[in-house]
Design brief:
The structure is a single chain. This protein has 2 domains: about 220 residues, 3-Layer(bba) Sandwich (FAD/NAD(P)-binding domain), CATH 3.50.50.60; about 180 residues, FAD/NAD(P)-binding domain, CATH 3.50.50.100. The protein starts with a helix and ends in a 5-residue tail after the last helix. It is α/β, with parallel strands linked by helices. The protein is built from 11 helices and 23 strands. Strands 5-2-1-9-20 form a 5-stranded parallel sheet, covered by helices on one side.
């Protein structure tokens, strides 16, 4: 059975059980690989390399483990140290499904131990200082670790405190939630359960009133940039399924719903079908009064100025105002940055819009100034790619190019910017937005702007076990 036939049958049988959906999806290895996320990433070399050198990997998330697994197979004599404090691993995309009541927390938290072999030195600490001029790092405990080659996979950090009046411990109180909240070093993921409680509290409130709900998106790069809208649509549909309603506001620092016009148009259509969503473009959350339930936004916009006869156009004048909005419930997507150890080191971009993010070439993922350093995942200061799908495609690029450098060759593999955002537009439908540096890059012959049940079934039922057993082990 071809992948197209499998998709057609699944779409025709939306009511089939989880067991039946999984069985049908598993009918074809080709379908499994395609449904997994797209065009297959570059495979490992068929034979192991005899290149030698001490490799240090910093981080314990998906990117770090994918690189680790591939390096252990690609090198005949691997000398690898990983510096990561977390013995537990959080499947971060699953936070959305926990919030929606489709997963339990234990479905997205599992042991890191099985991914780090006995032949690997594991320092259960975190790096506080990078010294690339001397090829060494220093951990929180003061341990100095030298390296010949370095892979930086530290991920991001959230700064809730940049929103005046807000601290992370306020989440889950006074109608405030954030699905992003987690402590990856401790292997916990409170954001999912906090937001699930928020869904249920919203439902109870909607039984006696018509609450106002605000979902925010910041101006900073954001891990899985579509997540704020996922919460927007799922919480709205959560009420709709109970024949309840609320007034929803999507307040985003962006000027559109999505960067790609095809996906932007599709999401606009989704919102029209809901009929109760108001967009506040150019609005960034800067303060919150939790007791009074008032959110303050910095609204940036342009107004038309005088007509320029020489250029035959109007001057556009930048303006900004503070806008206060009352709410009953608010979901906050926090300002997001590279971890301090990277941002404060010579490894980070020293200027420009990517300042503080890891300075790597956007194709080779090799550091632009320190050629024995590579990056993977959310910490990279490249135009797009803060998703697990990106890390999966970056893994073989990083490993292949790192081995080339170890063999005294020029890195030749190129990352095309692939990323994927499964936009959950309702319970049971997803727009699978796949794109790269050039634009839309669908890996399956289906309209990528069309919400589909098959993507919901794949994301809910297949992706977690594939991530856990295949991706983290560098097998796909």
């Amino acid at each position: 059975m071809s992948p197209e036939e499998i998709v057609k049958k699944i779409e025709e049988n939306k009511g089939l059980s989880r067991r039946s959906a999984l069985k049908m999806m598993a009918l074809s290895p080709i379908a499994a690989s395609v449904l997994a996320g797209t065009a297959a990433p570059t495979p490992l070399q068929a034979s192991s390399s005899d290149a030698v050198g001490k490799i240090v990997i910093v981080g314990g998330g998906s990117g770090a483990l994918m690189v680790l697994s591939r390096l252990r197979r690609a090198l005949s004599k691997p000398d690898i140290t990983i510096i990561a404090p977390n013995e537990k691993h959080v499947y971060q995309p699953g936070q959305i499904f926990v919030a929606a009541g489709e997963y339990e927390p234990e479905d997205i938290i599992f042991d890191n131990t099985g991914y780090i072999g006995e032949d690997v030195t594991w320092i259960k600490d975190e790096v506080t200082t990078f010294d690339p001029d001397n090829n060494k790092v220093t951990t929180k405990a003061g341990t100095v670790v030298e390296y010949d080659y370095l892979v930086v996979a530290t991920g991001v950090q959230y700064h809730y405190e940049q929103i005046e009046g807000l601290t992370a411990d306020m989440l889950g109180k006074n109608g405030i939630a954030s699905v992003y909240q987690s402590d990856l070093a401790a292997g916990t993921a409170e954001g999912g359960t906090i937001t699930r409680d928020w869904f249920n509290a919203l439902k109870e409130a909607a039984k006696t009133s018509k609450p106002r709900v605000i979902c925010t998106q910041p101006s900073t790069p954001l891990k899985c940039g579509g997540a704020p809208q996922k919460i927007l649509y799922l919480s709205d549909d959560f009420l709709r399924r109970e024949k309840l309603t609320a007034d929803f506001i999507f307040a985003t620092a962006s000027e559109k719903l999505f960067s790609l016009p095809e996906i932007d148009a599709a999401l606009t259509k989704v919102q029209k079908e809901y009929g109760n969503i108001t967009n506040k473009f150019g609005h960034e959350l800067i303060a919150i009064d939790a007791e009074k339930k008032v959110a303050t936004f910095l609204h940036k916009y342009q107004v038309q100025g005088e007509y320029d006869k020489d250029f035959e156009e109007y001057d556009m004048i930048d303006k900004e105002d503070e806008v206060k909005l009352e709410y009953d419930f608010i979901h906050i997507s926090p300002p997001t940055y590279a971890v301090d150890a990277v941002a404060n080191s010579q490894l980070g971009w020293q200027k420009g819009t990517a300042k503080g993010w890891l300075e790597v070439d956007r194709e080779t993922l090799q550091h632009r100034r320190y050629k024995n350093v590579f990056g993977i995942g959310d910490v990279c200061g490249i135009p797009i790619g803060k998703t697990g799908g990106s890390a999966r495609h970056q893994g073989p690029i990083v490993v292949g190019n790192l081995i080339s450098v170890m063999e005294k060759k020029e890195p030749s593999l190129k990352f095309d910017g692939y990323t994927v955002c499964p936009l959950k537009t309702s319970y049971g439908e997803i727009i699978m937005a796949e794109f790269n540096y050039e634009g839309l890059a669908p890996s399956f012959p289906l309209d990528p702007a069309q919400p589909r049940w098959v993507w919901w079934a794949f994301d809910l039922y297949m992706l977690q076990p594939m991530y856990r057993y295949l991706m983290l082990n560098g097998l796909m």
